[in-house]
Amino acid sequence: MSGRDPELTTARVTPISRQELLAKMGEGAVILVDAQADGWYEREHLPGARRTCVHDVDELAATLSDDRSAEIVVYCWSETCDASARVSAHLAGRGYTNVRR
Questions:
Q1: What domains sit in the chain, N to C, each tagged with a CATH number?
Q2: CB 13 within 8 A of CB 96
Q3: Cα(41)–Cα(35) distance, rounded to whole angstroms?
Q4: Are 81 and 54 in contact (CB under 8 A)?
Q5: Burial letters for 7-26: b for 16+ Cβ neighbours within 10 Å, e otherwise?
Q6: Residue 93, number of CB atoms within 10 A of its CB
Q7: How far is CA 101 from CA 3, 8, in A?
């Protein structure tokens, strides 16, 4: 993460409730990133979600909005998922200012 402290970066990632996420999805106002383990994306991804893992965040970032304030929601299979936390922290560390999980 470019020498940034992961704890500080994670602190900039804010939670989003399921209800709020559903509303934003209905408005088309959010970029969805699926951080689930291999195989789960094919079975359970949300419509329009992009698949990534922590090792591919740079490739994903190259395809995201140039607007670093665009709202990005990273999700996994549960609230305690380490993968979504790590992907979120990496995106925040790359300058995205509105990352949620």
A1: 6-100 (3.40.250.10)
A2: no
A3: 8
A4: no
A5: eebbebbeebeeeebeebbe
A6: 21
A7: 22, 16
The whole-number pLDDT of residue 60 equals 92
Residue with tokens 């990133």: 33
Q: How far apart are CA 78 and CA 84, in angstroms?
A: 9
Give me the sheet containing 99-100, strands edge to edge: 50-51, 31-34, 72-75, 99-100
Q: Structure pTM?
A: 0.83
| pLDDT reported for residue 11 | 53
How many beta carbons lie within 10 A of that of residue 50, not counting itself?
A: 15
Enumerate long-range contacts of 21-25, CB under 8 Å, 24 or more apart.
21/73, 21/75, 24/71, 24/73
pLDDT tens across 19-48, in order?
Answer: 999 999 999 889 999 998 878 888 889 999
Predicted local confidence at residue 90, as pLDDT: 93
